[in-house]
Amino acid sequence: MSKHSPDADVAFISALAELLNKNELTELSVKREYGEDDSLEVRVVKQANIVTTQAAAPAPVYAQAPAPSAAPAPAAAPAGNDDPAQHPGAVTSPMVGTCYLAAEPGATPFITVGASVAEGQTVLIIEAMKTMNHIPAPRSGTVKRIMVEDGTPVEFGAPLLIIE
């Protein structure tokens, strides 16, 4: 059992976030050792609004990596001009973490494309700092699109799925 105060950890994390902003950093990782079997690992990430950069950045990366894909990448760009995060039915990630579509490996996914969901129903899980965070549907509707795969990392604000 840990002998350190959770309030001290919260103050420490707040100080890290302030340090991140003050020094114009985008990411900061720290591991604090309290004892032989007790430690705190913190990763603070600052997500910038890069909507226009986000749309423009993948094209050069894909065009440079595989030469045969150079032609399809620009063709896909006009169709991708509608940013999924701006869709009125978009469900975006409330945190940085790893996205899971089912409660455990091999289990039935929480949702599938075409499935009806009720407001508050768990649609996926995001693991952040070894904590499983159930993400509820913000509204009732039909799942039109799932934009993440099971076990993939997600950023804050990244579109996860669309419910209409």
From TrEMBL:
Residues 63-91 are annotated as: Disordered. Keywords: Biotin, Fatty acid biosynthesis, Fatty acid metabolism, Lipid biosynthesis, Lipid metabolism. It comes from the Bacteria. InterPro entries: AcCoA_biotinCC (IPR001249), Biotin_BS (IPR001882), Biotin_Carboxyl_Carrier/Decarb (IPR050709), Biotin_lipoyl (IPR000089), Single_hybrid_motif (IPR011053). Residues 63-79 have a biased composition (Low complexity). GO terms for molecular function: acetyl-CoA carboxylase activity. This protein is a component of the acetyl coenzyme A carboxylase complex; first, biotin carboxylase catalyzes the carboxylation of the carrier protein and then the transcarboxylase transfers the carboxyl group to form malonyl-CoA. Pathway: Lipid metabolism; fatty acid biosynthesis. This is Biotin carboxyl carrier protein of acetyl-CoA carboxylase. Residues 88-164 form the Lipoyl-binding domain. Pfam families: Biotin_lipoyl. PROSITE patterns: BIOTIN (PS00188), BIOTINYL_LIPOYL (PS50968). GO terms for biological process: fatty acid biosynthetic process. GO terms for cellular component: acetyl-CoA carboxylase complex. The lineage of its organism: Bacteria, Pseudomonadati, Pseudomonadota, Alphaproteobacteria, Rhodobacterales.
